[in-house]
Amino acid sequence: MAKFVRVIDTQRCFGCRSCVAACAVENHFTPDSPWNTMVEYEAGTYPNVARNFVTMNCMHCEHPSCKAACDAIGVHAISKNEFGVVLIDYDKCIGCQYCSTTCPYGVPQYNAEIKQLYPGQEKTPYEAIPAAERSPLHRKKAKTVEKCTFCWHKLEKAVVAGKMDQIGKVPEYTPTCDLVCPVQARIFGDIDDPTSPVSAYIAKKHATQLKKEFGTQPQVYYVLNGGDY
Amino acid sequence: MKKLALIGLLAALAATGCASDKATGTATAPAKPAAASEPSKASLVAGSATSAVLSGLAASVRKGTALVGGEYSLDSEEGRFHRIHAKALGMKCTACHANDSYPENFLYLRKAEFPMYVDGEKVKAVNRAMCIGCHSDGSVATPFYNFTKK
Hints:
The structure holds two protein chains of two kinds. Chain A is α+β, with helices and mostly antiparallel strands. Helices cover 20% and strands 20% of the residues of chain A. The model of chain A has no long low-confidence stretch (mean pLDDT 94). Chain B starts with a helix and ends in a 15-residue tail after the last helix. Mean pLDDT of chain B is 75; it is low at 1-36. By secondary structure, chain B is mostly helical. Chain B has a two-stranded antiparallel sheet. In chain B, strands 2-3 form a two-stranded antiparallel sheet. Chain B is built from six helices and four strands. Chain B has helices at residues 2-16, 21-24, 41-63, 80-88, 93-96, 132-135, and strands at residues 97-99, 116-118, 121-123, 125-126.
């Protein structure tokens, strides 16, 4: 069985935010609820200083604390599928934000209202796409929580088409944020395949997970350049 | 008896990291600095008694016998979440909401939201590391972290 992971090399990232923008476009961004953001900070002391850029999205943890909290109160709106992808069912979500509270990475975003991109103006053609024509993951609802899905709507296509070997390689089957990086600081693929580029990169660059003390076993790895992780 | 339980509860919170003296400003700190000393028999007994009190409280919250309400919401101070932590456990707001914002190099997606203002009142940032002590698998509260492999 394939298990999808991402590695983000902060030593290569120079903060262009293409991945942030690509995620917003692909996933029907609504104001105040970004799925992918960039944490930017300085490290070191003059003259040996560096500016670090760390993009953050859902870690798709092996033991997701968001799911544990959701299950504990009997809502069961969060699931983790056999490929390791953690998803929220908007129809089941009650908007309690327990998942936002327990996530050590601050990932789940509470969407109090679906705001327009340009308030007071006509909806953009993109926003005007009817809910029925969108992936269920993009049928966003007010007063629910949302987050990165690893672009499951694209991965699912590969699974259905029996083209899982093309995930991480072919644009149609690869998360959009990973496609647009101009410096190849992001790699996505199957960690269960030791020959996959993502497995090789994690091993070669000693990529690590963030906030290991929580024991959630995130499926997003980072090549880090310093910082409080 | 109630006083004893409360003292025990505060001691357990301090021990588990659910509340810190710095953050709460409560008088739970020892009079003398406990420099690398071994815990006394009395404190061990008090600790286990407190642990039992906390476990009992956690069980009654889960069973629904504790009066913590049924509203699953973070927005309201009267929601179940805040009633459990602030009222049933007696934790002060500053035990969790300790800092205006997160440090610049803190890797947290919603970092930019803080300091947050709700109804004109500042809501300080919470470091989730506070929660690990009680909410790890095998501890007293509902486990969210550090699940053991089964």
